[in-house]
Amino acid sequence: MTIRIEVSRDKELWNAIVEKSPQGTIFHTWDWLKIAEKHTNAKLYPLIGFKGSEPIGAFPIFYNKKLLIKITYSPPAYVSIPYLGPIIANYNNLKEDKKLSYLTHLIKVVDDFIINELHSNYISIILPPNQLDCRPFKWLGYAISPAFHYLVNLSNGEEYIWSQIKRKLRSDIERTKKKGVYVEEGEKEDLIYIYNLLVQRYKDQNLSVNVSKNYLIDIYEKFSPENLKIFVAKHNDKILTGIVVLIYKNKATFWIGAPKKNFMGTSPNDLIQWEAIRWACRKNLKYYEEIGAGVERLAVFKSKYNPHLCVSFVVKKHGVTAKIAERLYLRFRKFGFRL
Q1: CA triplet 54, 248, 26: central angle to 5 degrees?
Q2: One digit per residue, pLDDT tens: the chain, 339 residues?
Q3: Are residues 33 and 136 located together in one domain of the fold?
Q4: 79 and 206 assigned to the same domain
Q5: CATH number of the domain within which 52 lies
């Protein structure tokens, strides 16, 4: 089989592939990728794979050069994209041999483009949760490690979900409501307030928020209200905390927010998470996703709602200057340089 790739300039074709692919996420959409490119130092290559004239898949990659490091990554750093990587159109409708063939050949031609056209010596790709077949990367010499997310199945409705979460959590949520805390949908100014809360929370831990406020505003203005919702917990009209939830296809994703906040012995974040799940149930969505279950302190908080653990994969490949490139890359990341 021969697959050729093109750097796409066709937004409609690109989004059609994303929509048709079970691996396609909101982060794969054209507008999100272009906003991410705007707010990074990386150049976007939205690659579409063709079999003849038929588009069979897409693979967005970002490229950047810094000192000795020529980096290709999917997703790029500092834009809170948890995964990206290759997607295949109508993947679930293909027979197994075609699934493997399309995916393998697309990855091969993109790998060749990265190595021989971009001359990258550091490649990092995080596959979307619905893309469990990482064998083509293994066969090309990539190192593979797992990443973790949580997924709450909403199909049985909010009453069933409520009955399955821990009794203590149910008590905590009820106590929070009795203290007068309530949840509302927020607007752009609430997003900015949540961002400032996160900045302060990170500062208290001697850390810094690497996502810019202007990036979040651009995402909000492009994707709200259909694909982005803000939920804020309030008491006497004062915001205590908040989260940003993304909606795409049949899934709601808890994206960012929930800076740690205690209030009168209660946890507004527990309440706000539950209200977001209830909202997703009432919108007849099938899943509620919680990103970042691989970090212990976050996993403890996010596991309270009795989710299913989902695995995705991080694949990396290094060139001749691998060790130097990786050390420099991680050092720049540590000290906040925007690679």
Answers
A1: 60
A2: 799 999 999 999 999 999 999 999 999 999 999 999 999 989 999 999 999 999 999 999 999 998 778 999 999 999 999 999 999 999 999 999 999 999 999 999 999 999 999 999 999 999 998 899 999 999 999 999 999 999 999 999 999 999 999 899 999 999 999 999 999 999 999 999 999 999 988 887 787 888 999 999 999 999 999 999 999 999 999 999 999 999 999 999 999 998 877 788 888 999 999 999 999 999 999 999 999 888 887 788 888 899 999 999 999 998 666 556 566 656 655 444 443
A3: yes
A4: no
A5: 3.40.630.30
164 and 207 fall within a common domain: yes
Q: Do 160 and 178 have their domain in common? A: yes
3-state helix, strand, coil in the chain (%, to 5): 40, 30, 30
How far apart CA 78 and CA 150 sit, in angstroms, is 22
CA dist., res. 4 & res. 200, Å (int): 48
Neighbouring CB atoms inside 10 A of 139's CB total 11
Q: Are 134 and 125 in contact (CB under 8 A)?
A: no
CA–CA distance, 91 with 93 (Å, rounded to integer): 5
Side chain identity at residue 138, one-letter code: K
Q: Are residues 88 and 168 in the same domain?
A: no
- What's phi and psi for 264, nearest 5 deg? 50, 40
Q: Concatenate the DSSP letters of all residues of 85-110 into one string.
A: --EETTGGGS-HHHHHHHHHHHHHHH
| 74 and 191 within one domain | no
Sign of CA dihedral 88, 89, 93, 98: negative
CA dihedral 27, 32, 38, 41 (to 10 degrees): 10
Count of the separate structural domains present in the chain: 2
CB 109 within 8 A of CB 133: no
